[in-house]
Every structure is written in structure tokens, then in C-alpha cells.
Specification:
Elements lengths: L2 H13 L10 E7 L6 H9 L4 E3 L25 H12 L19 H8 L5 H13 L1 H25 L3 E7 L1 H10 L2 E9 L2 H12 L3 H18 L8 E5 H6 L1 H12 L22 H4 L10 H4 L2 H17 L4
Parallel strand pairs: 1-3, 1-4, 2-3, 4-5
This protein binds zinc ion (ZN).
């Protein structure tokens, strides 16, 4: 090897700003909930705070970059905010593509590991096996570390660009919350967002074409998984929020929530500017007007048979959350 190559390698390495093992913990608010529980609304209300950075769900669907628009209105390909995020993550020597950044804890080249990584949160024995498989065995350890680093660098970049000190991750999934907590990279506060299971069941049927039973089970199982994680967090770091209460009194619920996060509460305005958030995700990113209305279509849409089925599977838990 010539000395010239050595110099080139050294100067290339000097450009990379690697993440050390000891890194400042990022203040992170994680919204944990089933789908259709009002997390997009909550994300916009939180994102209105000048100290909050967010992009909604930190995961990517299959997007056609030729047509997909960021919430700022630009094509995702042309959005200067995302270009800057990309540059900052790349400056850490990490891979980042706006098409699908490696922020999900997945291992597509190793199917068994991938299945274990994505599985729902379960009991202690399974979680012990999962930890050994993902974080200790050499085959998956490096992959896990890379996803860990990409997540950290991405959130770090978004916080720097927005100038806010708190990151809100509205990915919702319990398993992702577990993975993020395992990294030790975040100072986490959890918002456990709950909506009447009958409303969520109806939304799943209407929007995802789920059958009644599957839709009910999704609501029930997701909350069970979230509850399993509760013991990992100090009670002062866990906030249970009902969507219906948020809709009924947005200002007082958000004031409580900002205090829980450790932020000065702000007055909500009826006109939220969604363009500045650069949110990806569902249609609401382009359509949200700041208008808050409770969706209670389930009261007329669900059949008596569907309501009976709901009662059998999930009625008890729904009542525990205060729904009569
Ligand atoms: Zn944008």
C-alpha cells in the first residue's frame, strides 16, 4: 500500500464524524398506540411547540418518489429539509436514503432474525431470547448497531434543523419503543394514546378493510403489548391520554402534556401550519386543517354482532380505560 493511499484513507476518515458509545441522550417523546387512535392529530398539536421536532412516524411506506409529497408541499425528492437531513446523517458516515432510511429495526437478509426483531412485545423469556439474538450474537449485532446509529443520527439532524430540543416519534408500535429503550440513547417519555376500542375497530374495518375479528384483536393486542412495557418506565415518564378527552378539551390536555414533557405550555391556535413539519405518513399530513372533531361513527356503523364480538374479546380492557 502506497503512502498516498494511507493519506487518502486518513483524510476520508477525518471527514466522518462517528458516533461514540457515550453520546448525549436525546429527549424523546414516544406516542404508543394502535392505528386510528388519533396519533396524527396529537403529533400536529405537539409539533406546534417551537421546542419540538417531529416527522410523525419515523418509518417509511413504499413511496413513489416521482409523485410523493412532503407535508411542506414539495415533492419529497425536492424538499430541502430532507436533503439537509440526508447530508447530516451521511456526515456521520452512515447510510441514509430519503426513499427508505434504515431506521426500522429490521434484518431483511436474515429472515429468522427479522421475524424475531419485528415480533410483538411478549413475556420475559421471549424478550431475553430476543436480546441475545439481536444484540449479542455477532451475526446480528452489527446490523442492530447500524439501525441504532441511523436512528440516533436522523433524530439528531432533525432536532438541529428545527432548533427544538425534544423529538416526538409517533411511530406508535410497541416493539419499536422497546428497541429504542434498549439502545440507552434516549431520555424517553411515553404517551400511551387510547381511543375507544369500538371506534378503532370501526376505523380498521372502514380504512384497512380488516374483518371485524382482526380489527378488534389489533386494538386489544397492541394495548396489551404497550402495557407490558410499562414496568420499564418510571411512573412520572408515562402519560395515559384518551383521544376523546383530547378532543373535548384540547387546550387543557395539551397544557398537561407539555408540562409532562417538561416544556412551557403554549396556547393552541386554530390554524396549525402543517407545512413546516415536513411530515410524511398518511393523507392527514396534507389535509389537516387544525380543526378537531371527535369521530364517533362507530356508534351507528358497527352491527350488534360486531359489538358482541368486541365485548367478548376486548370489553374488559375497554372498560378499564374508562369506556362504558
Ligand atoms: Zn418538506
Amino acid at each position: 500500500m502506497s503512502s498516498t493511499t494511507g493519506v487518502e484513507i486518513q483524510s476520508a476518515a477525518a471527514k466522518i464524524d462517528p458516533l461514540g458509545e457515550v453520546r448525549p441522550r436525546i429527549p424523546l417523546v414516544y406516542i404508543a398506540s394502535p392505528s386510528f387512535s388519533g396519533s396524527t392529530l396529537l403529533t400536529f398539536l405537539l409539533g406546534a411547540h417551537p421546542r419540538v421536532s417531529t416527522m410523525g412516524e419515523l418509518r417509511w411506506a413504499d413511496m413513489d418518489l416521482a409523485t410523493y409529497r412532503c407535508s411542506c408541499g414539495d415533492l419529497l425528492n425536492d424538499c430541502s429539509y430532507w436533503k439537509q437531513v440526508e447530508q447530516r446523517v451521511a456526515a456521520r458516515g452512515l447510510p441514509f436514503s430519503v426513499k427508505r432510511p434504515q431506521t426500522t429495526f429490521r434484518f431483511r437478509s436474515a429472515p429468522l432474525t427479522d421475524r424475531v426483531a419485528r415480533s410483538g412485545v411478549r413475556g420475559r423469556v421471549f424478550e431475553l431470547v430476543r436480546d441475545v439474538l439481536l444484540r449479542i450474537l455477532p451475526a446480528s449485532r452489527n446490523g442492530w448497531r447500524m439501525v441504532r446509529d441511523v436512528n440516533y443520527a436522523t433524530m439528531e439532524a432533525m432536532i438541529a434543523l428545527r432548533g427544538g430540543g425534544v423529538f416526538v416519534d409517533a411511530s406508535k408500535e410497541p416493539t419499536r419503543l422497546k428497541h429504542l429503550a434498549d439502545t440507552g440513547d434516549y431520555d424517553i417519555r411515553v404517551v400511551h394514546l387510547i381511543r375507544d376500542g369500538r371506534g378503532v375497530t370501526n376505523s380498521g374495518i372502514q380504512n384497512k378493510r380488516l374483518d371485524v375479528r382482526t380489527s378488534i384483536r389489533e386494538w386489544y393486542e397492541t394495548h396489551r403489548q404497550i402495557e407490558r412495557l410499562r414496568g420499564r418506565f418510571d411512573a412520572a415518564r408515562w402519560f395515559q391520554l384518551r383521544y376523546e378527552d383530547l378532543c373535548a378539551a384540547p387546550q387543557s390536555r395539551m397544557t398537561e402534556l407539555f408540562q409532562f414533557i417538561g416544556l412551557e405550555p403554549i396556547a393552541l391556535t386554530s390554524e396549525l401550519d402543517v407545512t413546516k413539519f415536513h411530515v410524511l405518513g398518511n393523507r392527514m399530513r396534507l389535509e389537516f386543517s387544525g380543526h378537531i372533531a371527535l369521530d364517533e361513527k362507530w356508534r351507528t356503523a358497527l352491527s350488534p354482532a360486531a359489538l358482541d364480538e368486541f365485548e367478548r374479546v376486548a370489553g374488559g380492557l375497554n372498560r378499564e380505560y374508562g369506556y362504558a
